[in-house]
Design a protein that fits this description.
The protein is built from four helices and no strands. It is an all-alpha fold. The longest helix has 37 residues.
């Protein structure tokens, strides 16, 4: 037997939680614009942030929301494992890209000029 207590929640309850969080968020956005002339902007922004946090918490109580927040947490852990290039490596790589781009553009300009000259000579233009 598994040591963890399994909680079985109806998919209907999960759907209701998600629906309620979306309705709450939409209502918060609507209130933000409805009270545009009545409240100063920092108060409206603060209230919208609080509503968004509450809606996120409610959505996190559903199975899908918990899975999503677990994904965000694991993504942050993986992001911290990335080894970012140093300034010197970034500069060298950028210069190589610029040099290769210039060389390829000059090559393509030369090929274009040669093909243009070939077409002009075949058509008798000079």
């Amino acid at each position: 037997m598994n040591g963890k207590a399994e909680t079985t929640r109806s998919p209907v309850i999960d759907s209701m939680l998600l629906l309620f969080s979306v309705v709450l968020l939409v209502a918060g956005i609507g209130a933000y614009y409805y009270y545009q002339d009545l409240a100063i902007t920092p108060v409206r922004v603060g209230a919208l942030i609080v509503v968004a946090l509450v809606a996120s918490w409610i959505a996190g109580q559903s199975r899908q929301g918990a899975t999503f927040f677990r994904f965000l947490k694991e993504s942050d852990i993986e992001r911290r494992k990335v080894i970012w290039p140093t300034h010197q490596e970034t500069l060298q790589t950028s210069l190589m890209v610029i040099i290769v781009t210039i060389i390829i553009s000059l090559f393509l300009a030369g090929v274009d000029w040669l093909l243009g000259a070939l077409v002009r000579s075949l058509l008798g233009g000079g």
